[in-house]
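Fold description:
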Amino acid sequence: MTYRQILVAADESADGRHAVSAARTLAASNDAQVTILKVLTVPSAGDVPAGRWISTSTAGPGGHHGELEHFRLWLGAEARNGALADAPEVAVAFGIAGIEIGRFAALRKADLVVLGRRDRTPDHRLLLGETADAVVRRSDLPVLFVPPDVKEFRRILVALDGTERAAQVLEVALAASREFGAALSAVTVEPDLDDERSPPANGPMPRGRSVRLRDLLMRLPRGGPGATGVALEVRKGNPIDEVLLAVTALPADLLVIGYRRGGPPKIVGPTDIARNLLYAAPSAVLTVPL
């Protein structure tokens, strides 16, 4: 997997500007095309239906070009070539942001969607807004969430659960390590059984999956002539707590996780592993749709 077409969605906030900067940095190092999108609510006058858009790359269905020019002025240097071969496309769409971002990503055949994340505050522990939550629940593309304090990706941690789905997550993590030029590590969490000598009634010992994961990871190309193997850390206990601890201990700039699409908005149950990790991880997070 390579990132050749990147869509970054931004509002006119500091978090949005940081997301644009991160997307452009990634694109410049991979010769990718960038589209910078802002979504506005449908005007009360009703003269622009949901799904309408305007862009610097095409005339589009027309109308409301003042909003596009305002967004370009706010972007400033980010709307110009800079380190890119071509100036990024700047677009404004109308409708519900959580829907229109996915619609525009499909229209542009994007490989990756980039969004900002809110900074952690004492009164706001979670780091995901309503729009970002809607996008990741609907997206069939990897979505990169970048918090304001992450400037580069040097260390990537991928969380694997030992199921067949882990291969999908690992593939995206490997691609990200190549695209970002970052070191890749892996973590899995086993149940903390009271008596490990007593295997479960149905199936192998939980640690069996960790053995299989380690064997798989040790055979992977790591970059450089003859270099193989990705380190796997095996932890025991609550998967949410242990993965978050692993992120901090590394420390990781980016956490890669599998993420089931769908589900109700803004409800984070105590056993919803992926959603809790996405909301609470101190690093950037790359979600892999499952």
